[in-house]
Amino acid sequence: MSVVDTRSPSGNAVFNLLAGTIQRIPPVVWFEWRRAFTVSRMAWMLSLMAFPPGLLLLVQMAARNDPRVEVISILIFILCACVVCMMSVFLWATPVLSSELEGRSWVYLAVRPYGPMAVLIGKYIVAVSWAIPVGLVSATLSVFVFPTEEPAHLIAVHGGLVLLSCLAYSALFLLIGVIAPKKCMVAGIIYTIIFEVAFAMIPAAVNMLTVQYRLRCLLIRWMEFDKALAERNPVFLSYFGDESSAWHVGVLLGMTLGYLIAAGIILRYREFTAAIETES
Amino acid sequence: MDVWQTSLVSSLAALRSSILNALLLNQSHTSESSINASEIPGHYAPIIELQSITKSFGRFVALRGVTVSMPSGVTGLLGPNGAGKSTLIKILLGLLRATSGKGSVLGMPLSGSSRAIRQLVGYMPEDDCYLPSLSGVECVQFAARLNCIPAVEALRRSHEILDFCGAGQERYRNVETYSTGMRQKLKFAQAIVHDPPLLILDEPTAGLDPDERDTMLERIRGLSNRHGKSIVICTHILPDVQHVSDYVVILAGGRVSVAKPMTELARPSVPAMQIRTIGPVAVLREALERKGKIVTLSQTGVLNVQGNTDEDIRLIWHTAAEHDVVIRSLLPARNSMETIFLEAIQAMPQGTNHANS
User: By CB neighbour count within 10 A (0-12 exposed, 13-18 middle, 19+ buried), where does B186 fall?
Assistant: First the structure.
């Protein structure tokens, strides 16, 4: 068993790190799930799930004519892939460290071999696994609020965007939570407003660094709005780039992996203790 | 018929092999899961060795060139608030990196072996470190799972350890509802569930009533005596240290002030006997002084008589009998932990005892 396995750290250090971490992820995920089933969390998730279809229902009731599929799709994208996914992973992933540091339970986890890394990845998996169903249900219900010709296509596109949004934003907020554990929520909100809202709208190189840009590009490609937009006004293309969807998916997954690796490196080398917290 | 025979023989062989495998696995598991300190390679003198360890947080220096060797058995780590005890423990556990200096735990160097060290060390922090929303047994099971013990075995061990810690049906309650005593038991259980050869216990008896305190100290002593565990106990309750420790390290102002065996520390500089009597002690004191003995009387009414030879003891008994004084106890004098601690703190150079400033 492990008591002996980890005693002689021979062989490849990276392999040992991966193997040791992977071995410990299932219990972290299991116990995090076990801790997560509280009435307040369930109520919050159900509210998030119901929010986009509810809002769209109000929009439909107020609208005189049925809106075009572009409008419907953009509304669902903003509400589900952006608002719902961001909010659900924000509340799960950002306090990854602060909740343990404030609850003084960090040391309980940190003194276990590979504990910090397993906690990081375990919490990431839990955040993603909670947020994805919420986003998917929300997007599916939203699609059925408006009568469209191809609901299955809309569901598939928004399902894919929800999936990628949850994966990328969870990793991003996890990184913010590790960089600034004491003020993680404030830092997360500020980052989101500055980068994911403001900078993502600037048609310059900086918006390519945002998750929002990639998701937006994928929406346009997968819904095949790009040709229509280009015909209407070529300026729009500067907001959506001309790369393929595979490229955007690849970049998004690369960004996700990059955020996770950065969070892992910070966690490995930074000293998270009460002494440091009070000193800094 | 031949086919049947062949099939039967091969089935029996497979069954035999699987039983043997299971037995071997069980055997190896049992041996791995109960590691004693003596099984560690390079064991055992000393279990912790530090050389010139310094730790700074910016301009604040928490540890200043700590050099100490802690042997196996129970070591008491003492010091006033801000002396650097917690920092030292965190360095031992790899939670903090020393600014300079080197050291080893269980023969493994501090730098580069933190994961291996953590696997072999059980740590009981001073602060509450339970995970909310879980029951006691789940908390301990989670600690075991994080040490890579399989789920079923982790659950079995958790119950076993909680039984050892005297936790009854409370183990099924949510940890947020626990009393201080139960929280201490829980922290202790999660520290020992993976059967580590070295335990670091930070204030293990804090907040316990006298009965529970005695029981906890007995458990600690038992783990060392019967199970061969080495234990570093960090506490402010000095009698606890005197009760269980074989070796004492006192830190003051980030430096090691004292690092000696308990027996050596407890031995007074001048051999003496302590006498407790039934009734007034003044008569005996005067009589002994008349016979040329150097006698002091403590505030608690204990007579301290210099000398501990057989002749000295006979003289005390004779004198008491002559003056009809009934002796309740006559024991070799020992330095109290309070005295040792205060002397150690006062012995430190001026200006060093400001680790918090």
Answer: buried
